[in-house]
Amino acid sequence: MSWLDFLFGTKRIRELETELTQVRNKLSQVENALAEANADARSLQNSFTRERKAREVAETTIKSFQTSLTNLGIALQERDRIITKLKETLAAQDLSELASLKYQVQTLESENQTIEQEKAEAIRLLNEKEAQLNSPYSQDIPGILKRMLLAPSAQALSIPLRTRLRFELAKIAFVALAKQEIQWEEKDHTWILARLQEAFPTARIHPVKDGKYRILKDKASLGVILGESFAQLRTYVSELFDCDDFAFELSLHAKIWWLINSIFYSEDLVSMLHAYNVPLLSGEVLIVEPQNNLIMTLQEAEKAGYKTSEIYP
């Protein structure tokens, strides 16, 4: 072999190696393209899977929605049926309730008419009595008022209307009652405390509420106040209007009508669990049972079992 053939052979080998390298590069590119094609195929398959699942969910949702629409239609039909039934029921009840309301209105009108009649009768009796006595202040006003309030027609009224009748009659008699004579004198709170502590050494004397007190001078004045009290017109109701309410009302009655603030609310929490009044007079201290206007000395009250333990001046 000549050296020229050797040179040409070497060159050809290099060219073949270059072509081999190019073929390898192209093969590598083909493999890469094939890998990308496989990846795209897998992605496309995943997309198809997701789309299929989404379609299944959509179909399930549509079926559920159709079921809900069917149930809603049934519920609306039931609602319409109930509304129709309710309208029929209300239409029937309206007549009954209207008749009941009409009866209540008639009853109230009748009771109001009775009140006005009793008031007119009270005024007539008061005027008649004043004419007989030839005096603007009849001494029998309490008796007249009590007869009016105890009349069968008044007792038949409801409690609120009987209360209204009491106030209507009380307004008629207010001036006459306020003008009757009572004897009193004024004392300060230290005198009050001293007398109460002397009369009831073991009782609890609660703090005084006023600086000055009007003290009745005699039992006659106390009798006037008790005679004008409406306590005896009250009905005893256990736990609702009982002894403490009677005692409180008498004490308040003396203050409102006579400005006498010395008929004290008192209690026996030792032996009786009972409430009553302690009037403080100029010369003595008494016990009054407000439910019947019984006046007792301290000795009489002690014999009857009263043991005063609380006094509210």
Describe this entry's structure for a reader.
The chain is α+β, with helices and mostly antiparallel strands and 313 residues long. It has a domain at 182-312: Beta Polymerase, domain 2 (2-Layer Sandwich), CATH 3.30.460. The chain contains eight helices and eight strands, in the order ααααβαββααββββαβ. It has helices at residues 3-133, 141-150, 152-155, 159-178, 189-199, 219-227, 243-258, 298-303, and strands at residues 184-188, 204-205, 212-216, 263-268, 274-279, 286-289, 294-297, 310-312. The chain has a four-stranded mixed sheet with strand order 2-8-4-5. A two-stranded antiparallel ribbon has the order 1-3. A two-stranded antiparallel ribbon has the order 6-7. β6 (286-289) and β7 form a beta hairpin.
Oligomeric composition of the shown chains = single chain
For the report, how would you describe the main beta sheet? 4 strands, mixed
Q: What is the fold named in CATH at topology level of the domain at 182-312?
A: Beta Polymerase, domain 2
Tally of DSSP β-strands = 8
* SSE topology string: HHHHEHEEHHEEEEHE
Radius of gyration: 53 Å
Beta fraction? 5-15%
Physical arrangement of strands within the biggest beta sheet:
2-8-4-5
